[in-house]
Amino acid sequence: MEYRNLGTSGLKVSSVSVGSWLTFGSSVEVAATAKLIEQAYELGVTFFDTADVYARGASEEAIGEALHGIPRQYVVVATKCFFPMSKNPNDQGLSRKHIVESVEASLRRLGTDYIDLHQCHRADTATPMEETVRAYEDLIRQGKVLYWGVSEWHSAQIVDACRIADRRNAYAPISNQPQYNLLRRGIEREVLPVCEREGLGQVVFSPLAQGALTGKYSGGSTPTGSRAADAERNVFMDAYLKPEVLARVDALAPIAQELDLSMAQLALAWCLRQPGVSSTIVGVTKESQLRDNVAAAGVTLPDDVLQKVDDLFPARRR
Length: 318
What we know:
- With 318 residues, the protein is of the alpha/beta class.
- It has a single domain, classed as TIM Barrel, CATH 3.20.20.
- It is 36% helix and 13% strand.
- The protein contains eleven helices and ten strands.
- Strands 3-10-9-8-7-6-5-4 form an eight-stranded parallel beta sheet, covered by helices on one side.
- The chain is globular.
């Protein structure tokens, strides 16, 4: 395993981390979750990501139970808040009330005294940024949260949070969790440069485009048991499964074969080529997937390979 600093902070995270969206607490049973997390830890994974809204708290509960056998100081546990947890108008967003209450609830579900990284799942335009920054400052000073970060924020919002933290001599966010993969390179234009300047590391989600970049849907196939075959979990996959997209994905196969890599390893190593990317979050349901994904850690792609991949999946300039 390779370990990287999360932004310019001193916190080190495994370059391949395990997430829980649509898996732990929902499609993966508790016992299987515990086994996968144990195996991940044995393979060097120390960073585990979840959110209060994932399976309405069941994901946090499953991860908390699974981590009981591992010394707490050896893992980095990340969770998030923003999305509604009920119909109550205060049970959502990034107000001081909701952040504090969400953290308390997450601590109970995770069965821990502190959260290593608490993230704003989205930006909240209805709450003053200063209120959010001050809420995290208080939680960090109380020891309930060690670091805070953001997810899917625009570059201007990230800068705003950092400047407010500077003015108040408060703790600034250390991370951003965006979607980033060969098919979604939007952060390269503004978000990535701004985060590198401000000291935020990227913890990227969906680096395999929900499995589309693994080759499992080659030729438009939909394997039984795959995410694409599950009507409850495939709602964000349409753009990835278009014939013209899958044709380009299929063209990655010979490139991966030349390097003796799986297509998943190639896609993960491509994300990790960016110095601003601290970790890639993978969602696994099987040990074989886990082992394959973890093997991408430390892989360096030659310049000629990076050019071939870039030719297939060019970044949009605007």
